[in-house]
Amino acid sequence: MALKGTLDGETRRAALLDLAEEKGGLHLSEAVELWDVHPMTIRRDFELLESVGRVRRVRGGIVPVQADAFGTRQGRNLRAKERIAAKIAPLLPPDGAIGLDSSSTAYVLADSLSADSRFTVVTNGLSAFEALARKPDVRGYLTGGEREEQNLSLVGALTVSAFSAFHFDLAVMSALGVHGESGTSESTLAQTAVKDAMARASAEVVLAVDASKLQSRARVRALALDRVDVLVTELDPADPRLDPYRAIVPRIL
Predict the structure, then answer these.
(1) Strand 205-208 relative to strand 230-232: parallel, antiparallel, unpaired?
(2) 3-class secondary structure, 88
(3) Would you report the helix, strand and coil content of the chain in percent, each value rounded to 5?
(4) 84, 232 Cβ separation under 8 angstroms
(5) 3-class secondary structure for 139-194?
(6) pLDDT score recorded for residue 5
(7) What is the pTM of this model?
(8) Which end of the chain, C or N, has fewer beta carbons within 10 A?
């Protein structure tokens, strides 16, 4: 029996999210039966919920993104991220302007800056901005935009506009996946637009990913590798796992 077939799209998506959070997930066929709408309508609802970071698409349905998802990722591969941050630190230009994305790797870099660091840093990451606020000599800017829970970030037109207003010496960003043929990739178009704006505004682009991201792809294409100037991982630069990137990326650390 259909329960909510007459609901408008926004109300239906809110109800879909509530049910997914209550049950820990929601299957497409179940949602179609409950709402008595075409499967494509539910698929579009799922895509919209994923685009704002509220759910993650899985085979046949969705699962909710938990509020502590970013905190969980902060602790995942932490030693690798600390090694990456240590490699990036010497690249940061004294008194320079730096763009940081909302990744957990960027947060570790922001948190590791010395107390007397003197940088201008612009980020769309809420956690990174909080870390920067603890550095008295860092001039930190938080972009505007729409809050995205999955990455504790800000996304959308205001975010893109804010990054575009600066000239960065260096932009440091991570990615959900990086592949030797297709470049970097993200889970949402909104995140892809942010990374593109950062790259366009910067004289040099540093891609910071731990080895678990190598030769993997996410749903949405982001940057081609020829837009990346430096690839930084926790690996030794001679590690063969980095071979797919050597012919394209000028510098690998």
Answers:
(1) parallel
(2) helix
(3) 45, 20, 35
(4) yes
(5) EEEECCCEEEHHHCEEECHHHHHHHHCCCECEEEECCCEEECCCEEEECCHHHHHH
(6) 44
(7) 0.72
(8) N
Identify which of 151, 53, 160 has the alpha carbon closest to the alpha carbon of residue 102: 151
Distances in whole angstroms, Cα of residue 201 to Cα of each of 116, 154, 168, 230 = 26, 17, 6, 16
Q: How far apart are CA 102 and CA 123, in angstroms?
A: 7
Q: Tokens in use for 112?
A: 């590791």
Show Cβ contacts of residue 105 under 8 Å, excluding neighbours closer than 6 positions: 81, 84, 85, 174, 208, 209, 210
Averages of pLDDT over runs of 10 residues in the chain (253 residues) are 56 86 84 89 89 77 66 67 95 95 93 90 94 92 88 91 96 94 90 96 97 86 96 97 96 97
